[in-house]
# Entry
Amino acid sequence: MMVVLAGCAARDGVRIPAGNRVVAETDALILPAAGGPAVVDVVERNYTNAVEQRVSLFTSSAVPGQNYLNIQMYGPMQPELDGETRLGFRPVHVAQLSREMRQQVPGVPMRTSGLYLQNNYGPFGYAFGRSASGGACLYGWQQIRARDNERTMFQNRGNIQIRARICDSEADERQLLALMYGYTISGTFVPGGWNPYGAPRPVDPTLGEDSSPILPGEEELSTRPVPAAAPRVRRVAVENAAPAATATDVSGAHRQPAVLVPSPVAVEGAATQKGTPVVPAPGCVEGGSACN
# Structure
C-alpha cells in the first residue's frame, strides 16, 4: 500500500487542471466604460495558447441569459500550462456568428447591421433585435489583429477576440451600442513581439502645414452664456462728526443743585427729634377727649 502511494506521489507531470476561476475586478482584461453596466463578476480560464475572461454585467431583462463582455487573448502563456487544452480560433463568419447568437440570445430575432463602424480599436459589427415582450438585445463582435503585411514571426503577433451580449427592457439600439464604443482593454502579454494592434498609424501629413485649419469640435467649446457682471457698488467713507451740544445739554452743564422742599410730615418729625415744643390742638386746652 505504501509503495502504491509513493508511486502516485512521485508521478511526474501531475498537476491541477486549469479550470474557470473567479478573479478580482481589478484583474479584468476588459471593462465597460465608466457609468456603464455594473460589473457583477469576472471569470477567467487559462489555455495553452490563450487566456479567456468573461466579465458579467448587470442585467435587467426578461430575455434568458446574462449580459457580459467576453475577451480571448491569444499569446505566449506560462510554461506550466503546456499540455493543457488549446483554445480554438473563432473566425468572424456569418454562420459562426449566427450560431453564437442563437445560443446567447435565445428566442430573439436578431438583425445584423450593415453599417461600417469603428471604435478605438478598429472596426466592429453587431446585430440588434427585440424580444416578444419588447426588450432590446444587442450582440457585438470585434477581432483585433495586425494587418497581414505588418505581422512577422517576431513583431505584431497575437490576436484578440471580443464578444458582447447585452439585453435591456428599457433601452434602445443606440443606448446598447454605447457598450461597443466604451469598453477598455487593459490586458497585455509581456513579450515585446506581442502586438495585435499593429504599427502606429502615421501622423496626418497636413498637420503643421499652411492652408490646413484645424477647428475645435462643438463638444470642446463652452456654449454656456457668460453671466452678466454684477453692478459695482461705490462705497464712500463717512467720518463721524462730534455731536453738537443741545440747549438741554448746555443748560445741564450749569445746572444748580435742586432745592429739596421737605414734606410737612418730615418737618414735623425732624422738629420732634430736636426737642421743639409741640403746640397742643385746641381740643386739648379745653379738656377734650382728644388729649386723653
Notes: The helical segments are 2-9, 94-104, 173-182, 247-253, 264-273, 282-285. The mean pLDDT is 80. Residues 17-185 form one domain.
